[in-house]
Amino acid sequence: MRTKEQRTFDIFGHTIMVILTITALVPMILMLISSLTSEATIVKNGYNFFPEEWSLYAYIWVLTSNGSLILRAYGMSFLVTISGTVCSLVITTLLAYGLSKKGLPARGLLTFLVFFTMLFNAGLVPTYINYTQNFHLKDTFFSLIIPSLMMNAFNVLLMKSYFQTAVPDEILEAAYIDGANEFFTMIKVAIPLSKPIIATIAMFVGIAYWNDWNNGFIYLVKRSDLYTIQNLLNRLMQSITMLQQNANNLSNVNEGLAEIPSVTVRMAMATLGILPIVIVYPFIQNNFVKGITLGGVKG
Questions:
Q1: What distance in Å separates the CA atoms of residue 294 and residue 166, rounded to the nearest whole number?
Q2: What mean pLDDT is predicted for residues 70-97?
């Protein structure tokens, strides 16, 4: 039988979560509705959840004028996201599992060094010089994967805590008694028991790779064929803005600009950019909740 205090706490907690959920969903719903609203209605009445006139022209304009580029950019985004997520999971898991072992020499120092990277970094200019002049990543596929995103200290510490709290030492010791070495124990015992945190880290890293536009903006100078969907949509929006700003200086351009849904097309591009994440998230949310809850326990 739940006490009055417990019921009050549940009501308060659920109310807060409902408010936060609405706060997160309302902008996305408004973005979707705005992308399906006619340009004239947006200009006349502003953003509205119940527009006077619906229209698919923004999507038609984006797909007909840049359809092949968008398909290629989507393919590049999937390739970058999958490759980067797999590499990140491998590196993060190996490091986190090692740091979770109590017998690791200088374990405290190594953990501090990982944590230290959460507080300080070299800065943009030294990082750019290092990756372009020493590693020669400029205008390469690896420039979309390696800088900044391949391993995150927060993810390492989160997975380390999960290994310490959710993987019983007794099971690992039983594997050692049966003759398993450290690597076999990690692959056959620890990792299968850590699927929730692995799914959680995969979601964190996958979203970061999918939404990342900064690496492509900085390191891709000549190779526009390597643009991900975020880079391409960013470039398209910059092009539309540039045309609008210079319309008075260009001849015979006003008529063409009048056909470009400059406001609704931005919403359509944003919708296209987040659509895969919205589709995938419901399938991994259960593992995400369990992983973030257990992995967040201090080890």
A1: 7
A2: 89
Concatenating the DSSP letter of every residue in 88-111 gives HHHHHHHHHHHHH-TT-TTHHHHH
Q: Model-level pTM?
A: 0.76
Which residues is 54 bridged to in the sheet? 37
pLDDT, averaged across the chain: 80
Count of C-beta atoms within a 10 Å radius of residue 196: 21
User: Is 80 within 8 Å of 208 (Cβ atoms)?
Assistant: no
C-beta of residue 196 within 8 angstroms of C-beta of residue 294: yes
Cβ count near 241 (within 10 Å): 12
CA–CA dist 34, 134 (Å, integer): 46
CATH topology assigned to domain 56-295 = MetI-like fold (1.10.3720)
Contact between residue 62 and residue 272 where contact means Cβ atoms under 8 Å apart: yes
Give bridge partners of residue 37 from the DSSP assignment: 54
Give the helix/strand (H/E) hosting 203. Answer: helix 195-211
Q: Which residue has the higher pLDDT, 1 or 292?
A: 1
**Where exactly are the structural domains of the chain?**
56-295
